[in-house]
Amino acid sequence: MQHLLSAADLDRDTSIALLDLAEDMAETADRPHKKLPTLRGRSIVNLFFEDSTRTRISFESAEKRLSADVINFSAKGSSVSKGESLKDSAQTLAAMGVDAVVIRHGSSGAPYLLAHRGWIDVPVVNAGDGTHEHPTQALLDAFTLRRRIHQTASRGRDLAGVRVAIVGDVLHSRVARSNAWLLTTLGADVTFVAPPTLLPAQRDAFPVSMETNLDEVLRSSPDAVMMLRIQKERIHGAFFPHEREYTRIWGLTAQRFQALPQKTLVMHPGPMNRGLEICSEAADSAASTVLEQVANGVFVRMAVLFAVLTGKEDL
Ligand code: NCD
Q1: In the chain, where does DSSP find H-type helix?
Q2: Same domain for 119 and 177?
Q3: Cis before residue 271, ω within 30 degrees of 0?
Q4: Does the global pTM surpass 0.70?
Q5: In this predicted structure, what is the pLDDT of residue 79?
Q6: Less CB within 10 Å around the terminal CB: N or C of the chain?
Q7: Distance 32 CA to ligand 1 centre (A)
C-alpha cells in the first residue's frame, strides 16, 4: 500500500490484513514497554489544517509507539489561499526530508493533490478531507465492530451480515462516507438515516440504503447504531428547523436508547454533541463503544503507518 487516501480504495483482503495487523499492534499495548523500534529514524509530519483533538493525538501516539520522529504542523489561521499554502507546505516538508505525511484538510481532495501532484514523493495518509473521506476512522470503526461481534476470534474475519445504521448529518460526514465503503466491502449492510435534507442528493452514489425514519430503522434491530455529529461548522443553511426538533426525530434520546435490544452497539466518532444527536445515557452505557473506538484508533493507525512506510507486499 503506497498511500491511504480513501476507504473506497481498500479491497476486502487488504482491509482484513490491515485489521489483523492492528490486532498485532494491540497486543503490543499490553506489554510493559509499549514502544516498537519499527520506524526508528523515520520522520512523519502531521499536517493539520483543520481542528482536531483525537485524530491528531491518535496519529501522534501511533507514530511514537512505532519510534518514528514526529513533526506537528498546525496550519490553522494561514492567510495564504488553500492550494498555494498546501503546495508551499508540501515543498517545505519535502526539502526537510520527511518520510510520510499525515494530512487533515478542510478541502475535499487535498490529500490527493499532495499524493499525485509531484510536490512531495512520500506516502500520504488522509486524516480527514472536507466532507469527503476519513479512512482511518472507518478502519477503527470496523476494527471495533469486528472485535465486539467476533470477540477473540476476530482475526481473518469480515463483517458479513452485520447491520449498521449510520444516523445523522450524513451529508457533511466524511466518517459516514468512509464507513459506507469499508463496511460494505467487509460484507456489512449499511443504512444511512437522516432528515431528507442531510442525505446525499444522489441516492445511488453509495452502496447503502437510505432512510429518513429513525424509529422504523431501530425497530429492525440493527447490530450497531453509529451516531454522527451535527457538523455545525459545515452547515451554512437551514437543514432542519431547530435543534430540539432534530433531537426529537433523529437523536438517540434516552427513550429510543432504552427501547433498543441490549446487544445493539452504540458508536460515535466523537466529538459528541451530548443532548443533540446522542444522550449521555447512551454515550456512557455498556453498549457504547465510544472510548474503545478511541483506543482502537491508535492500533489501526500504527498498522496503516507501518503498511505505507514498509511497503508490505500484501498490504
Ligand atoms: C470526525 C471528523 O473529524 O471527521 N471526528 C474524528 O475524527 N474523530 C467526526 C466529526 O468531527 O464529527
Answers
A1: 12-28, 54-65, 82-96, 110-116, 135-150, 174-185, 214-219, 243-250, 254-259, 280-283, 290-310
A2: no
A3: yes
A4: yes
A5: 47
A6: C
A7: 31
Measured in angstroms, how far is the CA atom of residue 235 from the centroid of ligand 1? 15
Into how many domains does the chain fold? 2
Residue 315 lies in a domain: no
Binning pLDDT at 50, 70 and 90, where does residue 82 land?
Answer: low
Of 136, 175, 228, 296, best ligand 1 pocket probe by most atoms within 8 Å of the beta carbon: 175
Pairing relationship of beta strands 43-48 and 100-105 according to DSSP bridges: parallel
Domain that holds residue 89: 7-134+294-310
Give the residue among 294, 301, 314, 308 at the shortest CA–CA distance from 25.
301
Per-residue burial over 112-124, b = 16 or more CB atoms within 10 Å of its CB, e = otherwise: bbbbeeebbebbb
pLDDT tens string 117-155:
989 999 999 999 999 999 999 999 999 999 999 998 899
CA 54 to ligand 1: nearest atom: 8
Residue 135 Cβ < 6 Å to ligand 1: no
Which pLDDT tens digit goes with each residue over 14-54? Answer: 999 999 999 999 999 888 888 999 999 999 999 998 888 89
β-partners of residue 211 are 193
Indicate whether 139 and 129 sit together in one domain: no
Does the pLDDT value for residue 237 go beyond 90? no
**The three grid cell numbers given for residue 247, joined into one nine-digit string:** 433531537
For residues 288 and 205, state if they share a domain.
yes
Is 254 among the domain residues?
A: yes
Residues comprising the chain, all counted: 315
The pLDDT mean for the chain works out to 93
> Do 92 and 140 reside in the same domain of the chain?
no
Domain holding 26: CATH number?
3.40.50.1370
Residue 267: beta bridge partners? 226
- pLDDT at 77 > cutoff 60: no
More confident residue, 94 or 216: 216
